[in-house]
Amino acid sequence: MVRSSRRSKLRPTRRAASSVPTGRPVSGVDERRSAIAQTDRHELAEQRFAAEVAAGLNRVAGPVSALVVVAPPRILAALHLDLSEGLRRVLMAEIDQDLTKTAVSEMQRHLCGR
Protein backbone atom coordinates (compact mmCIF):
# COMPACT_ATOMS: atom_id res chain seq x y z
CA MET A 1 0.00 0.00 0.00
CA VAL A 2 1.34 3.42 -1.00
CA ARG A 3 0.69 6.36 1.32
CA SER A 4 0.45 9.87 0.04
CA SER A 5 2.84 12.31 1.65
CA ARG A 6 0.04 14.88 1.40
CA ARG A 7 -2.13 12.92 3.79
CA SER A 8 0.51 12.90 6.49
CA LYS A 9 0.62 16.72 6.51
CA LEU A 10 -3.11 17.10 7.15
CA ARG A 11 -4.42 17.64 10.64
CA PRO A 12 -6.34 14.65 12.02
CA THR A 13 -10.10 15.17 11.85
CA ARG A 14 -10.63 14.52 15.55
CA ARG A 15 -8.43 17.53 16.38
CA ALA A 16 -9.95 19.82 13.75
CA ALA A 17 -13.32 19.84 15.51
CA SER A 18 -11.87 19.88 19.01
CA SER A 19 -12.75 22.72 21.38
CA VAL A 20 -9.24 22.59 22.81
CA PRO A 21 -7.39 25.82 21.97
CA THR A 22 -4.59 25.47 19.51
CA GLY A 23 -1.17 26.92 20.11
CA ARG A 24 1.64 26.17 22.47
CA PRO A 25 0.32 25.55 25.97
CA VAL A 26 2.05 26.90 29.06
CA SER A 27 4.73 24.58 30.28
CA GLY A 28 5.63 24.40 33.93
CA VAL A 29 9.18 25.48 33.16
CA ASP A 30 8.78 28.55 30.94
CA GLU A 31 5.49 30.50 30.80
CA ARG A 32 6.74 32.81 28.03
CA ARG A 33 6.25 30.10 25.42
CA SER A 34 2.47 30.27 25.48
CA ALA A 35 0.66 31.32 22.32
CA ILE A 36 -2.69 31.17 24.10
CA ALA A 37 -3.92 34.58 25.30
CA GLN A 38 -3.88 35.03 29.05
CA THR A 39 -6.51 37.01 30.96
CA ASP A 40 -5.12 40.29 32.27
CA ARG A 41 -6.98 40.69 35.55
CA HIS A 42 -5.48 44.15 36.15
CA GLU A 43 -6.82 45.38 32.81
CA LEU A 44 -10.25 43.89 33.57
CA ALA A 45 -10.27 45.68 36.94
CA GLU A 46 -9.35 48.97 35.22
CA GLN A 47 -12.20 48.55 32.73
CA ARG A 48 -14.64 47.72 35.53
CA PHE A 49 -13.48 50.78 37.50
CA ALA A 50 -13.92 53.04 34.45
CA ALA A 51 -17.42 51.66 33.87
CA GLU A 52 -18.35 52.33 37.52
CA VAL A 53 -17.01 55.90 37.37
CA ALA A 54 -18.91 56.53 34.12
CA ALA A 55 -22.10 55.11 35.66
CA GLY A 56 -21.70 57.43 38.66
CA LEU A 57 -21.15 60.44 36.40
CA ASN A 58 -24.15 59.45 34.27
CA ARG A 59 -26.35 59.37 37.41
CA VAL A 60 -25.53 63.01 38.23
CA ALA A 61 -25.40 64.21 34.61
CA GLY A 62 -28.41 66.53 34.89
CA PRO A 63 -26.84 69.37 36.91
CA VAL A 64 -23.43 69.12 35.20
CA SER A 65 -22.84 72.01 32.79
CA ALA A 66 -19.13 71.41 32.08
CA LEU A 67 -16.89 68.41 32.59
CA VAL A 68 -13.12 67.96 32.44
CA VAL A 69 -11.80 64.42 32.75
CA VAL A 70 -8.22 63.65 33.78
CA ALA A 71 -7.17 60.00 33.65
CA PRO A 72 -4.50 57.70 32.25
CA PRO A 73 -5.01 57.08 28.51
CA ARG A 74 -6.56 53.59 28.80
CA ILE A 75 -8.98 54.65 31.54
CA LEU A 76 -9.85 57.80 29.60
CA ALA A 77 -10.73 55.75 26.53
CA ALA A 78 -12.90 53.36 28.57
CA LEU A 79 -14.64 56.27 30.35
CA HIS A 80 -15.36 58.01 27.08
CA LEU A 81 -17.10 54.91 25.72
CA ASP A 82 -19.39 54.65 28.76
CA LEU A 83 -20.31 58.32 29.17
CA SER A 84 -23.87 59.28 28.29
CA GLU A 85 -24.54 61.46 25.26
CA GLY A 86 -25.48 64.34 27.59
CA LEU A 87 -22.12 64.21 29.35
CA ARG A 88 -20.26 63.96 26.06
CA ARG A 89 -21.91 67.22 25.00
CA VAL A 90 -20.65 69.05 28.13
CA LEU A 91 -17.20 67.44 28.04
CA MET A 92 -14.85 70.41 27.76
CA ALA A 93 -11.50 68.58 27.91
CA GLU A 94 -9.94 65.15 28.26
CA ILE A 95 -6.44 65.17 29.76
CA ASP A 96 -4.60 61.89 29.37
CA GLN A 97 -2.34 61.94 32.42
CA ASP A 98 -2.02 59.75 35.48
CA LEU A 99 -2.21 62.02 38.53
CA THR A 100 -3.15 59.35 41.07
CA LYS A 101 -0.02 59.85 43.21
CA THR A 102 -0.02 63.63 42.89
CA ALA A 103 -0.91 65.91 45.82
CA VAL A 104 -3.99 68.12 45.35
CA SER A 105 -1.90 71.31 45.53
CA GLU A 106 0.40 69.92 42.83
CA MET A 107 -2.63 68.98 40.68
CA GLN A 108 -3.91 72.56 40.85
CA ARG A 109 -0.54 73.92 39.71
CA HIS A 110 -0.29 71.27 37.02
CA LEU A 111 -3.80 71.74 35.59
CA CYS A 112 -4.39 75.46 36.25
CA GLY A 113 -0.86 76.78 35.87
CA ARG A 114 -0.89 78.33 39.37
Written overview of the protein:
This protein is mainly alpha-helical and 114 residues long. It has a domain at 64-114. It has 6 helices and 2 strands. Strands 1-2 form a two-stranded parallel ribbon. The termini are far apart. Mean pLDDT is 76; it is low at 1-10.
Described by its quaternary structure, the protein is single chain
Which percent bin holds the helix content? 40-55%
Total number of beta strands: 2
| Major β-sheet annotation | 2 strands, parallel
Please, what is the average pLDDT?
76
Q: Assess the beta-strand content as a share of residues.
A: 5-15%
Strand order of the largest sheet: 1-2
**SSE pattern:** HHHEHHEH
